[in-house]
Each structure stands twice: as structure tokens, then as C-alpha cells.
Amino acid sequence: MSVEGDLFTDRELETKRLQLNFENGVNSILISPRRMGKTSLVKKVKGLVESPSLKVVYMDIYKCRTEYEFYEKFASAVIQATSTKMERMAENAKEFLMGVSPKIVFSPEPTTEFSLSLGLNPRANNAEEILDLPEKIARKRGIQIVVCIDEFQQIGEMPDSLTIQKTIRSVWQHHQHTSYCLFGSKQHLMSKLFYSRKLPFYQFGDMFFLRKIPTDKWIPFIISRFEVAGRKISVPLAEKICTTVENYSAYVQQLAWNVLIATETEATEQTFIEGLEATLAQVAPLFVEQTANLSSYQLNLIRAICSGYHTDFGKQEVTSRFALGTRSNLPKLKKALIDREFIDETESGLFLSDPLFVIWFNKNMM
Ligand SMILES: Nc1ncnc2c1ncn2[C@@H]1O[C@H](COP(=O)(O)OP(=O)(O)O)[C@@H](O)[C@H]1O
Ligand SMILES: [Mg+2]
Asked: Residue 34 C-alpha to ligand 2 middle, in angstroms?
């Protein structure tokens, strides 16, 4: 779930930058780990810039597995967002797409009541025509459109992905009234799409990483949330909430909330611990599930990292102390854990990506 209004803090620079991009038709690419605040930021900026002459379309393509599932989502989101009345949606679809039979269906998602189904298929609708849709609508209506696509890394996972990427890029690059904001969380997958010179999306737009919200921004935020609830928290304890979860946006909020619930008047070390326990209890089922399918070598590599090793896994002492198997197995081991988002590779070596996972793993799996 994304946050808005009072629950949103900081991000002044990123907000400004994205807002300028949206207003000036500059494409944006936004990358960060999960739960850092991409969706919240994009929705905030959407709210800031939207006007009768600038429409922002938001869609999440996490569930799209194939090219045409993506096109279906793309076209229906564009038509829904640019139709002012529900009754006009079907007409609009027919006006801009050849031979479709639009249906308005009750949405399976809880956030919207209904959705538009177009039944696009390769025989009747070619990819270029569909991808051109926002530009056609923008020209016809004399407006500007920004298309925001959440979890865009899915495109890289589709069968025949390179061809799809080429097609998309070749159509979108001619758009003058439509710009794109592409964002996603599987960092290594997103980077793969946008970093490689050889790939179609190379230099597609203004690319930036969402940094963590710094502690000095979180502290007054946490203190004020406590105040609103008629409670108090000291600066050092508010700081401890941040450092415990390494400033991960979602976890700062979750931990702060759990400490608040445990606190009657003023937060203490004791209510902090209770809040942390409650938070761990909430995330544990997911961690249990995620680790259930790991091989013992994979678990052992995580154990090594938890014990403070970040490089030199191939050294005899490390390989045998943690039973990591043969040296030649290491690259595969590493890749499997990176692909499944357990670890990140940085200049200083391998690190676990989730700070709560580290706490949980240390308690339960060492
Ligand atoms: N700017 C922010 N201020 C306060 N909390 C935030 C902010 N951005 C994100 N969060 C917290 O992090 C959670 C995850 O944010 P979300 O936007 O869904 O991240 P992402 O899209 O990167 O996975 C939110 O539900 C909220 O609790
Ligand atoms: Mg998101």
C-alpha cells in the first residue's frame, strides 16, 4: 500500500524532479529496492500535476506474464484514465482501437470497482497500434499524457522479451504528447533493462534511484505521529527505530506503529522491544515461506553473510566453516540468491537486502 497526505514525508527533491519531468514530457526511470517508496512518490506527484490538460495514467503490471497481457492492461488503463465518464469508456475504446469489443467488468481488485476489458489479441490488433494509443488520444483531445508503469521489470521476464522491448521503444520514441515513467523494484532486473547499451531501453529517460529517507527526516515525522496519537517518543528512541530497520521506509512505518501501539504514554526501551517483537511476528510467516525452498548451500551462504563475511567466500576457511560446497559452485549460489532478492552485490561485497530478515534469520536460523 502506498502512502499519501500526512503519512508522506521528505522526498522534496525527488518530488520536484519527477514533477518537472511530468510537466515537461520527460521520460523517467525510477529504481529502488522494494518498499522504499516508489509507488507512493509517483502517486503523490500524480496528484500534484494532474489537470484537465495533463492526465497521468497509473498501472501496475506485476501480474502481466505475456506481451498481450501487458497490452491489455496498458490500453485499458489509458482509456479508463482519459475517459471522464464511465459510459464513455466503451465508445472511446472503439474510437481509438480497431475492432475491439469492450466490456466493463467488475474488477477483481479491491481498489477499483470496475475495469475495462478489451479482449485485445495479436490477430486483430497489432502491437504498434496499441502502443500508440495514448499519443492518439492526447493529440485528439489536445492534452498531455504521462503513462506510469509500476513493476516494469516484468517486461524483461516475458517470453521473447527483446522483441517486445524493441517494439515498445520504437513506438514510444516518436511520442510528443505522451511521456513515460517506468519504475520497478527488482533492482537487478530493472538495471538490466536500462543499463545495457545493447538493449532498446538504454538511455530512454531520466534515470534515478530512490535513496533512503534520512534519519533526521524520519525523527520529527515519528515524533509527530506519536503526538497525533497523544503519546511521546524521545529522539534517541525514534532514531533507534530508523537504525534497526536501516531506514527502510515501509519498516520504519511498521515498527514505529507497533512501538506506538505498545506505548501508553511515553515510549521506553521496553515498548520498543515489544514493538520490534510484534513487527517480527508480522513478517516471520513470509520469511519462513521464502526460506523453505532454499537449498542448504544457499542457507549456508546466508549464514556466512550474517556472520559478517561479505567477500572472499572462495577462501578455504570460509568455504569449509560454512559448508558452501565446491568453489566452482559459488557463482551459481550467489546468482540464485541475488535473483530471489535475498542478497545484493555492492562494491564492498555481498549483503542481505532486508534488514528485518537479518534480525529474524539471526534469531531463528543460525
Ligand atoms: N515518503 C514517505 N514517507 C513516509 N512513509 C513512506 C514514504 N514512502 C514510503 N513510505 C512507507 O513505505 C511503504 C511502502 O511504500 P511504497 O510506495 O509501496 O514502496 P515501493 O513502491 O517502493 O515498494 C508505504 O506503505 C509507507 O509505509
Ligand atoms: Mg510499489
From this structure: 7
Residue among 75, 93, 79 at smallest CA distance from 131: 75
- pLDDT for 178-226, tens place per residue? 999 999 987 778 888 998 889 999 999 999 999 999 999 999 999 999 9
Select the CATH number that applies to the domain covering 215-287 from these four: 1.10.287, 1.10.8, 2.40.50, 1.10.10: 1.10.8
Residue among 8, 253, 258, 356 to mutate when testing ligand 1 (max atoms within 8 A of CB)? 253
Pocket of ligand 1 (CB under 6 A): 1-3, 7-11, 32, 34-40, 185, 249-250, 253
The answer to whether the beta carbons of residues 210 and 190 sit under 8 Å apart is no
* 226 burial type by CB count under 10 A (0-12 exposed, 13-18 middle, 19+ buried): buried
**Domain boundaries 293-364, CATH class:** mainly alpha
User: pTM score, two decimals?
Assistant: 0.90
Ligand (nearest to CA of 62)? 2
Could you give the residue range(s) of every CATH 1.10.8 domain in the chain? 215-287
Give the whole-angstrom CA distance, residue 71 versus residue 175.
17
The angle formed by the CA atoms of residues 132, 133 and 137, to the nearest 5 degrees, is 120
Measured by CA distance, the residue closest to atom 15 of ligand 1 is: 37
Q: What is the pLDDT of residues 23-64, one digit of tens each?
A: 999 999 999 888 899 999 999 999 999 999 999 999 999 999
How far is the centre of ligand 1, averaged over its atoms, from the C-alpha of 41 (Å)?
8
Q: Is the CATH code 3.40.50.300 the one for domain 5-209?
A: yes
